Predict the structure.
Amino acid sequence: MKYRKLGSSDLEVSEISLGAWLTYAGGIEAEQTRACTEAAFAAGINFFDTANVYGRGAAETAWGEILSDHPRDSYILATKVWGQMSDDPADRGLSAAQIAKQIDASLARLQTDYVDLYQAHRFDSDVPIEETIEALQQVVRDGKARYLGFSEWTPEQIQAAIDIAGPELFVSSQPQYSMLWRAQEAEVFGLCAANGISQIVWSPLAQGILTGKYRPGEPAPAGTRAASDSMGGFIARLMNDETLTAVQRLRPIAEEAGLTMVELALAWVLRRTELASAIIGASRPEQVHANAAAAGVALSADLLAAIDAALGDVSVTGQTLAPLATAGVRHR
């Protein structure tokens, strides 16, 4: 495993990190969750990313039980706040009251006194940004989080926060990024790099599309994410013959380079120096090890050109999708 510095912090995170979005929020059994987590430690992964809203606390609870068996200084733990946590539609967001409530609830579920990274899961345009910033800073002052980050903020929102609190406010940005979704390269990567903010990317395998297991003209294999309704249409937007055919063109490129499709896709995102880590999901320990093998893999310029040629126009497919954070910034 290779490690990279997380933004302006003193944290060194593994290039491959383990996430808990779909799997450990109730998607797999507790024994599998534990097995995958232990496989991550065995592979040298030290960075674990979750959120309060994953299973409305189920993912945090699962990791609280498992990670408590490990010394607290042996792993770097990140969670997020923003999503709706109960049937009450008001039980969400980035108000001062909500942040104060949710950090304590997260810490209780995670069975720890602090998280290393506390992230705004999305931007809350209903709350003055000054209130959100002050509340997040209070979490750090109280010793409940070491550093702060955000996920899926627009350049306007990022710049507004920097203008108010300075570049030292955040150390990380967590956007979607893969061969099939490159929108963040245009502005977010550069803005963040100029302000000491690293990228921690999610869905680097495009929800499994880039593994090559989905083939054009064929139904999704039983038991896969695309075969279920749990994705809420997220993966369906990429399940078209044009995209799947282009992804299959990557297979001989990977084979010639002596790489698996997974290694090729993860090495592709990790080629960017703006990245600190790529978050992967896994339901089996062998998947963890297969993903971890991509750490430190370097892709030549010729190989990168071959990837772009194989994907063609579908390499920007994701940019036609509605971004997850578009609302403007509200001030006091």
About this structure: Residues 225 and 304 are 28 Å apart (CA to CA).
